[in-house]
Specification:
The chain has 374 residues and is an alpha+beta fold. 18% of the residues lie in helices and 37% in strands. The chain has a domain of 247 residues. β8 and β9 form a beta hairpin. It is elongated. The two termini are 59 Å apart.
Length: 374
């Protein structure tokens, strides 16, 4: 009847797979092959052999590539570095980040958290130092070295580069066999650690007379996570790198500021500022190390620290210290320190002082927990 809807067809149930049905399908396939012409059978066989050959060739090429890389790589970190960019792009470009992008999360991000912002303490990685312990003989490298490149961490907070060391080719750091530590300037915020993998990325070069003569010094990517952190010594084809770091359980981020409030730095003295967990001298981070050129300060008296961010366990205290070392051995070294109780947010109480000679300084610390971006 016109205008009457046709009854809907009932959905077909999938055929039940039984031994009899499988036998029938095999028989039908065999019959199909018997009914083919010799030319059709030859064409199918040739196509099958071609596909198998191509698959075997791809597997062989991949195995050869892995073997070649394993032959020159001196450690797993160097082998991973060769594939890291494509690996990272595969998993993280969909999150809206690019490979060379630096972290968009600043220090002190949650010093004053909003009421609806849920933050927490996290495990963190505290990097104290990075140094080139040796270079390989006979490969064109000789001390001193003009080093440029990058050392950065990537963690679960945003997977972008958190810069620890960065020098362009136009502003190399000269390191010697006796003074082989890199001048670190980061991290820019604390490095979070979780059960999900995060990475330390190293890409260092030695400047040549021309760019074409620049030489790789160290290319590494080190994976770390809770319960599984890498070692500290990393050999590569041309050098050996040593990274001194510690895993800090249930920690918060401390951002240190030091300001001169009176007097001046004593003449003829080098200076060193450090900060870290008060119970361990091994966990002290060098914030500034300067020679007899005078204490670097801005117009407001704020000391221009090379590094500001350290990690502190929630049950620990933070020690901030200064040491003045005399150039003339007839003079004695001077030092001063302050200990602050860890906080989860806010800033430290005012009136925390350091003093060396007539130079009086005030310490302030901004505390922050963490919030995962995605």
């Amino acid at each position: 009847m016109a205008g009457t809807d046709k009854p809907k067809a009932k959905p077909q149930k999938p055929a039940k797979v039984t031994a009899a049905r499988i036998a029938k399908m095999m028989a039908e396939g065999a019959a199909m092959i018997r009914n083919m012409t010799p030319e059709e059978r030859d064409m199918i066989i040739a196509k099958s052999m071609s596909e198998e050959s191509a698959s075997n060739a791809d597997e062989a090429a991949e195995a050869k590539e892995d073997a070649n890389e394993s032959e020159w790589a001196q450690c797993e970190g160097e082998l991973f570095a060769a594939k890291f960019r494509s690996f990272w792009n595969k998993y993280y470009t969909d999150c809206g980040a690019t490979f060379e992008q630096t972290t968009s999360i600043p220090a002190m991000c949650h010093t004053y958290p909003a009421s609806d912002c849920s933050t927490k303490a996290m495990d963190t990685l505290q990097i104290m130092s990075v140094k080139v312990t040796s270079i390989k003989d006979g490969l064109g490298l000789d001390w001193p070295l003009e080093v440029f490149g990058i050392v950065a961490a990537r963690d679960v907070l945003d997977h972008k580069r958190n810069i620890i060391f960065h020098r362009p080719r136009t502003d190399c750091q000269i390191i010697t066999q006796d003074d082989c530590y890199l001048a670190l300037t980061g991290p820019t915020r604390a490095i979070a650690v979780s059960v999900d993998p995060s990475y330390i990325e190293v890409s260092l070069k030695v400047k040549g007379t021309t760019e074409a003569e620049d030489t790789d010094l160290s290319d590494l990517v080190l994976m770390y996570r809770t319960g599984c952190c890498p070692g500290s010594v990393f050999p590569s084809r041309l050098s050996t790198l040593e990274i001194e770091f510690r895993h800090i359980n249930r920690s918060v981020e401390a951002t240190v500021h030091i300001k001169v409030i009176g007097g001046s730095w004593p003449d003829g003295f080098h200076g060193e500022f450090c900060a870290g967990i008060s119970s361990s001298d091994d966990l002290q981070v060098k914030l500034l190390d300067f020679e007899d050129g005078g204490l670097p300060v801005n117009a407001d008296g704020e000391i221009k620290l090379s590094r500001r961010v350290v990690s502190v366990g929630v049950e620990s205290n933070l020690k901030v210290s200064v040491r003045a070392r005399p150039i003339n051995k007839d003079h004695a070294a001077e030092s001063s320190e302050a200990v602050l109780k860890c906080q989860r947010a806010g800033t430290s109480p005012s009136g925390i002082k350091l003093s060396v000679g007539s130079c009086n300084m005030e310490v302030s610390v901004a505390w922050s927990c963490f919030r995962r971006a995605w």
